[in-house]
Amino acid sequence: MIEKTVEQITDMINVENDVTKWYNQKIKGVSIDSRKVDGGRLFIPFAGENTDGHQYVRQAIESGAGAALWQKDVPGMPEDLPVLVVEDTLLALQQLSKSYRDSLEVKVIGVTGSNGKTTVKDMTASVFGEKYRVQKTEGNYNNHIGLPLTMLSLQESTEVAILEMGMSGRGEIELLSKLASPDAAIITNIGEAHLQDLGSREAIADAKLEITAGMSEDGTLVYLGDEPLLSERVTEEADFQTKTFGMDKSNDMHPISIEQTERGSRFTMNQAPALSFELPVLGQHNVTNALAAVSAASLFGVPFEAAAEGLKKVELTKMRMEWVEGKNGVKIINDAYNASPTSVKAAVSLVADLPSTSKKIVVLGDMLELGLDEELFHYQTGQAIDADKIDYVFTYGTLGQFIASGAKGSFGSERVFSFQDKDELVQSLQGMLQGGELILVKASRGMKLEEVVESLSH
Predict the structure, then answer these.
(1) Confidence of residue 196 (pLDDT cuts 50, 70, 90)
(2) CATH 3.90.245.10 at 322-457, yes or no
(3) Where are the domains of the chain?
């Protein structure tokens, strides 16, 4: 993590007050939480609508912070403490992270996409880790605050940083890219998430391509070649190198064979046809995610054999195609972290194709931020569920009702159950289980369907 003196910090950001008497004060790390400042961290307060972090500056320094920033339009700056006055504390955080990143001899891989970016981040980190000292974005620290904090947590010895970049609107990924200056960037796909904010998949594609805004001159964009919205735009606008991955044989990297096992996936691919790659995670879409990781790593000299070893060891963030053992031999696939029509259809299709002698049940909740056509998207998702391969459909939430309506056309009402109350859903589902069933649980994060998983596994 960043380790500087106050004097060195003043060379990295514009400090507007005289802090010469604090020049030798040592800073080790940064924090935006006044309760997590021990060890000499730099406390960075924000002036929010409901609470103002500046009121905790004295408490933070008394608790072990080495110094604090202070936004100049906030009154009451304490003169007796190591406080650095800046124009805007958020901009100062971002400026500090950019300066620190530029001082490091680290290669940065940026990752974005509508679905799968966290999974690709985890896979990419695991693959690069076979050759390099690697750090990656932890948790959901992928926005205009989280990414700078992640960058400031980088060790000076880190050789490769895998940085996830999220967004809610135009311009956000451009900002993150310019802060991180990626040496390579990955776009996993273009889905329906953020339609509410951006209005069309075309606009989403434009927003995701902002990841190239800060890319180094000799950088490479690794993207899903199966997505026409990306291929069209890259062909028209590219002033950087490109590599494609995907299912179609026209991609630079594509699978030759894919085999799904009960607990994972196995595949071969065109650039190393004699080598078998194994993943401890299910789904054809995760094979695609793995290809993205391997493709990026190959740009930096990671051999395919090492990449295969890295994929075997990958540890995905919780609630992403996570196997959970339930009661009486019930097997649960917890994919409750996020959802879009594309990812739900992929997950349901996976469950449908898995070998199983017991009943298969899908529990699906609302998919959020889909814009004006959200009801139609949910209805079409229900229609797409294969009634010959899935036994029962349970839905939760206001929009989940439309999944249920779409499914009833092929399932009939006796195999589809819709709920507005999570406890009632769990009770109904538990009453149906006889042991050994395979259950998929998936919805947008806000629906908290991991609570259903917890009820079924305890």
Answers:
(1) low
(2) no
(3) 3-87, 104-313, 322-457
Q: Is 267 helix (H, G, I), strand (E, B) or coil?
A: strand
Q: Which CATH class is domain 104-313?
A: alpha beta
Averaged pLDDT, 122-150? 95
Contacts of 413 (CB under 8 A, 6+ apart): none
Q: Characterize 252-267 residue by residue with b for buried, 16 or more Cβ atoms within 10 angstroms of its Cβ, and e for exposed.
A: bbbbeebebeeebbeb
Which CATH architecture fits 3-87? Answer: 3-Layer(aba) Sandwich (3.40)
Q: pLDDT tens, 20-48?
A: 999 999 999 999 999 999 899 999 999 87
Calculate the CA dihedral of residues 227, 232, 238, 242 and round it to 10 degrees. 30
Q: pLDDT value at position 236?
A: 60
**CA 40 to CA 230: how far, in whole Å?**
45
350 Rama class: left (phi>0) / alpha (psi -120 to 50) / beta: alpha
Q: What is the DSSP letter of 145?
A: T
| Angle, CA 263 vertex, CA 339 and CA 392 arms, to 5° | 55
Question: Could you give phi then psi for residue 145, rounded to 5 degrees?
Answer: -105, -45
